[in-house]
Amino acid sequence: MSSSSHSVLLKTGVQMPLLGFGTYKLVSPEDVSRAVDAALLAGYRAFDSAAVYLNEAELGRALKQLLPKHGLTREDVFITSKLGSKDQGERAMEGALHSLSDLDMGYIDLYLIHWPGTQDLEITDPRNSGNRAESWAALEKLHVQGKLKAIGVSNYTPAHMRELIQSCKIPPALLQVEFHPKFCQTELRKVCEEYGVCFQAYSSLGKGDLVTDPVVLEVAKNCERTPAQVLLRWAVQQGVPVLPKSSNPDRIKDNARLFDFTLSDTDMDRLSALDCGHKFCRDASQVV
């Protein structure tokens, strides 16, 4: 089954697939092309990049070459990219235009501020807050121009979200953060729900650590699925979009098989009970 029928509605009126393909660490043109080809074949229709991944140009090129092969057009795919923290603030417009130019796909479906801090500033520097606001204003302009179809943020805390929502002209459509059974982000999800912001997961497998967790392994064995499928299904069953990443064609295919099974309430509860506030990725909670 194609993942395209499984999507969430962003507040801009755009449908975004629940399943996206993460491209972090895919850099060489050959690796990007091979992975994108396998992903399109497996039914992925959303692709997630970022300025700091250094692969926007490669992703754009691969999609332009491969979409016709799969009988698809630009409008059939959803592309996300992100503003690097080095461009936070007065360089935000330049940074976003650089992403648009590198991807060279006409427009970007969703563009995010990647990190609440600014490169080369201390996390306690009050200028971080002003830079975030300036970046957001630049994204709002490009959104109005139709170059960024939806805009949002990544790695923001509840405090960052409230600050943004109180000061922005256009509210964020989406927040992308680390989310998995060991880090359920209850408060952050409530903030997103309150303001109608789509909550999207990255690092669903806890950098690979969670696929060997005894509870995850037991649930996977009982429903005859891979641990990765169980972890990804746990999120999408809650309406949370996911971004599994792999360069292995078989794994890319396996990770897309999330919509032909359901986890029982008991299994969902067992997985959620693993929540212990454990982060595997960089922590933004101290950024002012």
Automatic annotation (TrEMBL):
Keywords: Oxidoreductase. The record marks K82 as: Lowers pKa of active site Tyr. The active site is at Y53. Substrate binds at H114. The keyword Oxidoreductase applies. GO terms for molecular function: oxidoreductase activity, acting on the CH-OH group of donors, NAD or NADP as acceptor. Residues 19-274 form the NADP-dependent oxidoreductase domain. Belongs to the aldo/keto reductase family. This is NADP-dependent oxidoreductase domain-containing protein. It comes from Champsocephalus esox.
